[in-house]
From TrEMBL:
Originating organism: Algibacter marinivivus
GO MF term list: ATP binding; bis(5'-nucleosyl)-tetraphosphatase (asymmetrical) activity; glycine-tRNA ligase activity
UniProt record similarity statement: Belongs to the class-II aminoacyl-tRNA synthetase family.
Binding site for substrate: R101, E218, F265, E266, Q267, M268, E269, E372, T373, S374, I375, G376
Domain Aminoacyl-transfer RNA synthetases class-II family profile: 177-418
Residue ranges of the TM segments: none
Protein name: Glycine--tRNA ligase
Amino acid sequence: MANQDDKFKKVISHAKEYGYVFQSSEIYDGLSAVYDYAQNGAELKKNIRDYWWKAMVQMNENIVGIDAAIFMHPTTWKASGHVDAFNDPLIDNKDSKKRYRADVLIEDYCAKIEAKIDKEVKKAEKRFGDSFNKEEFVSTNGRVLGYQEKINTTLSRMAKSLENEDLADVKALIEELEIADPLTGSKNWTDVKQFNLMFGTKLGASADTAMDLYLRPETAQGIFVNFLNVQKTSRQKIPFGIAQTGKAFRNEIVARQFIFRMREFEQMEMQFFIKPGTQGEWYEYWKETRMKWHLSLGMGAENYRFHDHEKLAHYADAAADIEFKFPFGFKELEGIHSRTDFDLKAHEEYSGKKLQYFDHEDNASYTPYVLETSIGLDRMFLAVFSNALQEEDLGDGKSRTVLKLPSVLAPTKAAILPLVKKDGLPEIAKEIVESLKWDFNVIYDEKDAVGRRYRRQDANGTPFCITVDHDTKEDNTVTIRHRDSMEQQRVKIEDLRMIIKKEVDVRNWLMKMK
């Protein structure tokens, strides 16, 4: 765990030092679980959003995008079930006075057992070397099987208790497992209570006539209430999807782990409207398609896994998460849910308006079923950033910190460096900046020795450094250095655009999904 904690601390401090993420209102001592994206963070976030939008909307003729308002009529949240059922189980420690999510305490307990399994696997790997068969070991080793059994029984009991709203049993489970307050080690717990996560606000000029509103806790409902408007104006036939990215707000009890769980966050969601009865095949299709999108970024297949839900939401008939290996273990990055016709039916009932689709082939009207893919943009940012941050040993006691961001997502694609600040080299470098900035986000950097500038750009995630030297004046060539391999090559100034484009072009990255 200590190693994981150290890695995570490095991620947080690097994000601040290199202008990716700042604590919100830091000069006033900050606001808990609220963060600002700095100059590089804003670019990386925008690039991730664009990469998702291109793959989801632009590449699919039957998916269109919308941008619905954050404020919605309050009855929306009654119909969606959020007013009555959008709760987290909450538990307080009587000694530390700290508040926790009961389910997260139990999940963290299981994550520690999972770490023990990893330890056993690593020991066996060392012992058996090349002849080691991980699958066989995990399915036959007594100790590992025991650990796995403990995880399974714990999680399924918790899921059952939460589903039945048996909060006394959730507390009993915490006590039986002897789960202690992570800060003080105290096991003196209160009862478990439910806590609604929606932020309330008011709409209207005077206190007596103001209407109670909520900040939206998810972006999906804006899609559902616009289903018919979009279908008719875009003349889409089922199956078709509506995508949207935007802010959502949750009054998290325990917001923690940096930008992993925040009170104000951004979602990238797509609701796919289908014929009832076809949800099984579409569920499998979107699971596979979304995983391909993640893998296209080259962040390592071993860092992803599917987790099928034991506890299904009241509206779902199937649900799975794509989990990513964050510095603090495997956690949910994206959800794929088969939502049946719950949402549209509920909005029909509460609004009194028909939300049905007329199928010309069947000559019949029906309420479509929905298949949802929902990913947290901030979590995706954290996945990309934490995976990219690496310490590399260069031999001879030297090392470098490098942020190996997928180049398609990198905030700055190239830094243009004059070797010295004289002899007309800065002027040539600035001309190169002027010609490249139409196609790419590039920067000019002249401060410090060129080696230090390389290191700075490595740590900033810039895929290319282009150095202008005295030979440039003679033959119009420059040195281009690649971040990941540190290889340098001499190329013509006029070829720079094509070299960079080949490496950062969205098309080349998304083609990996094919």
